[in-house]
């Protein structure tokens, strides 16, 4: 299934433990290096990175392959290929039929899954420690030996078309897809993960095979283990199963475009549909990348704006100043601030949902007024509250082997190293109200915005009026 990470961009993860391997398996070609807090990495001769966090008392393990290629590595004509491949991965290989794959996983009591995002494709399995070697064998089989049979392609084509129809019914998904499309117009990052319906209907086996050949290469892949799998054992398994991976992929036009920095374009897209009882509006400025020095400052600033849900019992006490204004004046059903990051850029903004259709302008006005306030009047108390919430969210999101593996894989694929939770906590602790105001002045105050709106949006003012509210003086 396609995956979207909103709000805090917090990671999910994996753990793993493997059984022993024959002593004859050698790894003399590998150069190990140690990471923080038990995170170790090794790069094999062909360029494949193996990264683990070993927990000797864990009874289960998660292992997976993180690939630096998603929908962003496609062209307009092949958009949807990465997600299509994810569906076909479990439909049979040259060594195992679909039924054999399913039985093997079920007999172990394991879980095998995959997802596609704009920048990554991930295949992972969670199992008892003694079954990790079998899981790695299955992962290498589906990654290197998928049959991509025409009959399976046709069956999955219908499945993906139905999935596309379901996604189109989810207003949040629709709004954020349009937000990317308008903010990064005519660029790979602006395309959807599933791809347009005409592409889904037309994708061929040749395009699928070419995507694997060009992107499933050792230099773009990280094998991750978290939980009970010792680092050396996973490296041995990587030597055994993945040494035949090509070292480098082709520098195709799609790949080169995917590595070109995306240009943020101030613009808006509106889909008015008065049969939808709510107005669903996302407003964003250009955010920060995963490796940007202001990454955690962006998250703290986003946490100051906060979230709001009218349906919650504590709706009137959700902490942020904006939520107090929204609740007191009954302006929205809910809102969610978000800071979404990519390898070279991001989106920082707010997603508003309201059924008060005559007060849409008030809701947008007070939201952007709060953004303007961040540039010149932030208190120590609200910064400390936001920091505490952010640290708690990050630490809670690392609860479990799957979450840890996700964190390791995402960080190493996007930045080349894993920051430990302790390092992250120290960075957040050092953020001050001055840092927040400097960030707001640089990234929010009087900056161009991208607007995506769907539903009963007649009351949403034109772009120039909304843009003018980005530099409000108090």
TrEMBL record:
Q: Which cofactor does it need?
A: Zn(2+)
Domain Peptidase M16 N-terminal positions:
50-197
Name the source's superkingdom.
Eukaryota
The record's section on InterPro entries has: Metalloenz_LuxS/M16, MPP/UQCRC_Complex, Pept_M16_N, Pept_M16_Zn_BS, Peptidase_M16_C
Reaction equation(s) it catalyzes: Release of N-terminal transit peptides from precursor proteins imported into the mitochondrion, typically with Arg in position P2
**What GO MF terms are annotated?**
metal ion binding; metalloendopeptidase activity
Q: What class of enzyme is it?
A: hydrolase
Keyword Zinc included in the entry's annotation: yes
Q: Name one GO cellular component term.
A: mitochondrial matrix
> Where is the protein found, in the record's own terms?
Mitochondrion
Keywords tagged on the record: Hydrolase, Metal-binding, Metalloprotease, Mitochondrion, Protease, Transit peptide, Zinc
| Primary localisation category | mitochondrion
Listed Pfam families: Peptidase_M16, Peptidase_M16_C
Q: Which BP terms in the Gene Ontology apply to this protein? A: protein processing involved in protein targeting to mitochondrion
Family label: Belongs to the peptidase M16 family.
PANTHER family named in the record = GH01077P, METALLOPROTEASE
Designated name of the protein: mitochondrial processing peptidase
